[in-house]
Amino acid sequence: MPKPSVPVPGFLKRWATSLVVRRIRKKGIDLSSIGFLPEGTKVPLQREGTDPLPQIAEWREHEPMRKLDLPFDFTAYLVTGYEETRQILTDRNSYSNDIRHLFSGDGPATADDVGGLGFTDPPLHTRLRKIITPEFTMRRLARLEPMIEGIVDRQLDELEKAAAENGGVADLAQHLAFPIPFQTICDLLGLDYDDRETFAGLGSARFDATNGAAAAFGAVSAQREFLFDAVARQRVEPGPGLIGQILRDEGDAISDFDLAGLADGVFTGGFETTAGMIALGTIVLLRDPAYAALARDGSTEDVDRVVEELLRYLAVVQVAFPRFAKADMELFGTQVKAGDVVLASLAGANRDPKSAGERPDGFDPYRVPESGHLAFGHGIHRCIGAELARMELRVVYPKLLKRFPELALAQPESELAFRQLSFVFGVEELPVTL
Ligand code: HEM
Questions:
Q1: The model's pTM
Q2: Which residue in 68, 97, 371, 434 has the fewest CB atoms around it within 10 Å?
């Protein structure tokens, strides 16, 4: 018998909403410690192994706009289909990404929110995005490729050393998946080596829950302060990376505060996502020697195929940034009110047969999809770091599998510590033998 639903009082909804929003702002969008969410609403952030839960496919077919029974101050809908998701992400006029009205109501968003660009609307979003776009063109990114190769080689040495010191087993997440995007973003931003040491300490505190939530929150604001200091120092002597280049191009037109916010957004957007892809992608490739062989010995095109299919199949950013309806409207047959939230399941959209084609739940590097995947989103908020992420993944998988052709998981996949309820899916530890 389904339980009768008890109405939640308004003040409790407002409290719950502000709690979640504060957490999203401070903790990098991980809801795992918010235990009060009703079971059905956790579905878009949960997995069975690396697969979305079966409900996602069911809703995609029968409930294109699934109302989520959230105890918050707003009504939320989940879309799980490819066409619906694409339509929402493309429509730049009907939705706002600004979450600040939920808890304060004071003015427009600035870049100091977690994710920076992701939580801002035009015209501020347009202005800020235009400032960092030149740093993400293929020409500017090309300078990072040799650096990424060097980083990967160094971390493979570290992995080997760790295994030698630990009876043949090493944690691939700790020695490879996290350090690669971390070092890459430091190079991209142009942080010098002393800065990196400090920054690394803050980074690990941020993602390490063992010291308690308060320590993690402290590390987040410390990280922003640290970037603010780095910007202030580079204003006097601009460095070789993104921070220095923007200071040279924009001068006083951009404040230290706005630039630190942008840098923080780049870090938040590029770190956990790429780390998740490196670790999870390795797990998938080790499932079948034919996949590993394709990534190890295949041509450049083969490696590209493997990377694109891993991006589609894993969809590590499980749900796009929340979109708030700006006005009352009808959406896929449902009456939506201004202020309602629409969540788009990228994991659901990527497994839609309408986009992926046959056997959407299988991993198949030779897939000929009906249309491009949405792992990087779509529209004005589409991932600005997509080409950088691809570059890292195209370097890391072949190098890893060439260096250690006997690479294997040290424990069964079903026993791995996959993330629970995080917007960015991943695995905390990945013990392997070399
Ligand atoms: C495989 C790795 C990555 C994945 C799967 C990924 C995925 C995404 C997705 C889905 C969005 C858009 C969400 C939406 O529209 O609601 C996004 C936005 C963003 N990503 Fe990535 N990302 C990755 C790597 C990176 C990297 C390497 C960087 C930078 C170094 C980065 C920086 C950003 C930023 C700044 C935004 C906000 C863009 C905007 O709102 O205009 N991401 N990412």
A1: 0.89
A2: 371
